[in-house]
Specification:
The protein is α+β, with helices and mostly antiparallel strands and about 300 residues long. Helices cover about 60% and strands about 15% of the residues. The chain is rod-shaped, with a radius of gyration of 39 Å.
Length: about 300
């Protein structure tokens, strides 16, 4: 599966009948999938379908989605109030019996009667409305595809950056592992020098006890476990990138594990070169975690 970033923009538009519609999508980082839909009145019934389509393509990100619909041709229709007309005609018939040669009823006189005829914007029939809604749903799917393409393009670029940072983490781990200060000979030399200095300063110290304590301290300061865990994390992070899909949360956890081991290396270090490598390791891990925040 392709990697996706959580940022992107997409737009789709079209015309059906006398209606013109346009979709606009904006996506930014989010802990989960948060859809904020703004729909014109009368289209609320389609919201469930829109949410289903979005959830099928994205698992994380704050999506602001707006639909605009306009009418390109206004049509006016006359609506006759049948009850009012019947009442007027009934009144004319009753009055006609009392009036000799009543004047014929004129159309303009009828139209001047308040409430008899109402002029309003013509409404589309069911077929036209169904065609409009189908086009809008299709346009939504088109915009979804466009947004997904943009997020995948950015996701690929993010993947390249993260892969390079993992390579750097691995290189710094190897640098610490192969530092001369970690050889058995160098560790023995340092311990011997430290013991000699202590014995010279305090001849009364128990030599055997002193060497036992020094050996214990050397064991606690060993970085083997931390280096092995860093290597394992590097392998796991590469596997996640290769698998793709929504791996942002998993890589964020991996960044925390990287950081824990680098902190321990810096605290245990007894050599300037190892400390420097540990500090650089922390910087790279921090950059790695910052980039991971943009990944779905």
């Amino acid at each position: 599966m392709a990697l996706q970033s959580m940022t992107g923009f997409a737009r789709s538009e079209g015309t059906v009948g006398r209606h013109r519609w346009s979709w606009e999508f904006r996506s930014v980082n989010g802990k989960g999938l948060d859809l904020r839909l703004r729909l014109p009145p009368g289209l609320e019934l389609l919201e469930g379908e829109f949410r289903r389509l979005a959830a099928a393509s994205f698992s994380r990100g704050n999506l602001q989605i707006q639909l605009t619909v306009s009418v390109s041709e206004n049509r006016v229709e006359a609506v006759l109030n049948e009850e009012a007309l019947a009442a007027v005609l009934d009144l004319r018939n009753r009055l006609g019996a009392e009036i000799v040669d009543p004047a014929p009823m004129r159309l303009d006189a009828l139209l001047s009667i308040r409430g008899l005829v109402d002029f309003r914007e013509a409404e589309d029939d069911a077929e036209a409305i169904a065609a409009r809604d189908a086009a809008i749903v299709e346009g939504f799917a088109t915009a979804i595809a466009g947004l997904r393409t943009m997020r995948e393009q950015e996701g690929q670029a993010l993947g390249d950056v993260l892969s390079a940072q993992i390579d750097r983490i691995e290189a710094l781990t190897l640098q610490v592992e192969t530092d001369p200060s970690r050889t058995v000979e160098e560790i023995a030399r340092k311990l011997e020098a430290q013991m000699a200095a202590l014995m010279e300063a305090a001849p009364s110290l128990d030599r055997e006890r002193l060497y036992a304590e020094a050996a214990l301290m050397a064991t606690k300061a060993d970085l083997r476990e931390e280096l092995d865990r860093l290597k394992a994390h590097v392998t796991a992070a590469r596997a996640l990138l290769a698998a793709g899909g929504p791996i942002g949360r998993k890589l964020d956890f991996m960044a925390q594990e990287f950081n824990r081991e680098s902190n321990t290396i810096c605290s245990k270090s007894n050599a300037v070169a190892v400390t420097a490598a540990g500090i650089e390791l922390k910087v790279v891990i921090d950059q790695f975690r910052e980039q991971v925040q943009n990944l779905e």
